[in-house]
């Protein structure tokens, strides 16, 4: 007999609240597993999907991208997980009414290879800060259609990467991944988060609010081999600043961005690429990244569960509370609820 599932449903397009109701339980396909969900983290994508009504085309709908829990059912093709394993996973609220992969529910189907075991000593609410950050940053950094950097683990000196928005959740993962792959990271973040970004492995951090931020970064890159830039914010003003920086610097003139349409903001001799073309990453670099690199790194403590979780509720009833708080803005932290 299948477990009783519940979900936080968005009942209609641009509805202002989530409604907790029963949801179907779905057994896994051969390359999938099912987890009992114990923690959810919130992302700007959750805010935008609800507010703007984009991408999701069938309602009621279930959103949510970051989950952590225990494995309760395993697909026939999976041999390296067992029942009861504690894992994090990248959930995917897909269009077309396929919501078994969405995160805002008690039982979530996760597709391999975007799942990783976590140490017993780490709370689900701490671990859940990573999945979407790792997915978004890794496809920007390592896929051949974006920056095409070498996968971790690695040792330098392979060049210097500029990461704008280095204290954000996606930026934090990008800094850690790039450093683990053997690249020097020059981070860009607000002044109050400089020590935090350095704790992730960045060699230098420059204040994004400085009037001369472009000149400062160009000066910092002098004499270095710049391998490009990763914009974890991807607003017009940050992309234009990075275009100016790479135009005036030696080295590679490519920016990886996380927002669709960012390519159109390129100027000078700089190219902007987004990670939305990295659809085959699950059959190329992701298996290595999530299992051969990430699981041992998490077990050894060499990859940190950052940014720090801030628990803002308990239970699916608090999904809307988490989204509303995130919409007000956060800095160097990730909003989480426990289930």
UniProtKB/TrEMBL annotation:
Pfam family for this entry, one: ADH_N
Keyword Oxidoreductase: yes
InterPro entries the record matches: ADH-like_C, ADH-like_N, ER, GroES-like_sf, NAD(P)-bd_dom_sf, Trans-enoyl_RdTase-like
Keyword Transit peptide: no
Keywords: Oxidoreductase
Superkingdom, taxonomy of origin: Eukaryota
GO molecular function: oxidoreductase activity, acting on NAD(P)H
SUPFAM superfamilies assigned: GroES-like, NAD(P)-binding Rossmann-fold domains
Enoyl reductase (ER) domain mapped to chain residues: 13-337
Family to which the UniProt record says this protein belongs: Belongs to the zinc-containing alcohol dehydrogenase family.
Name this polypeptide is given: Dehydrogenase orsE
């Amino acid at each position: 007999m299948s477990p009783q599932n519940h979900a936080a449903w968005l009942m209609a397009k641009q509805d202002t609240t989530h409604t907790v109701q029963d949801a179907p339980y779905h057994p896994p396909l051969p390359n999938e597993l099912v987890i009992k969900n114990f923690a959810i983290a919130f992302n700007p994508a959750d805010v935008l999907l609800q507010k703007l009504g984009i991408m999701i085309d069938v309602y009621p709908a279930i959103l949510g991208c970051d989950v952590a829990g225990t494995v309760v059912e395993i697909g026939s093709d999976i041999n390296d997980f067992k029942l009861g394993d504690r894992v994090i996973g990248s959930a995917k609220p897909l269009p077309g009414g396929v919501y078994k992969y969405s995160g805002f529910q008690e039982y979530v189907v996760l597709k391999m290879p975007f799942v990783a075991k976590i140490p017993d000593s780490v709370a689900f609410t701490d671990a859940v800060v990573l999945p979407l950050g790792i997915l978004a940053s890794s496809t920007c950094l390592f896929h051949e259609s974006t920056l095409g950097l070498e996968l971790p683990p690695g040792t330098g000196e392979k060049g210097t990467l500029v990461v704008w928005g280095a204290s954000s959740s996606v930026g934090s993962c990008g800094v850690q991944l790039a450093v683990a792959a053997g690249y020097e990271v020059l981070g860009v973040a607000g002044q109050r988060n400089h020590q935090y970004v350095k704790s992730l492995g960045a060699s230098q951090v420059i204040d994004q609010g400085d009037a001369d931020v472009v000149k400062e970064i160009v000066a910092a890159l002098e004499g270095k081999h710049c391998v490009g830039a990763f914009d974890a914010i991807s607003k017009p003003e940050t992309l234009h600043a990075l275009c100016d920086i790479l135009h005036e610097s030696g080295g590679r003139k490519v920016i990886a961005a996380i927002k669709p349409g960012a390519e159109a903001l390129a100027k000078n001799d700089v190219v902007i690429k987004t990670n939305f073309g990295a659809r085959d990453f699950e059959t190329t670099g992701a298996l290595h990244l999530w299992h051969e690199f990430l699981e041992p790194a998490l077990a050894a403590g060499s990859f940190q569960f950052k940014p720090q979780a801030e628990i803002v509720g308990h239970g699916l009833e608090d999904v809307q509370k988490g989204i509303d708080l995130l919409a007000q803005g956060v800095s160097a932290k990730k909003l989480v609820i426990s289930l």
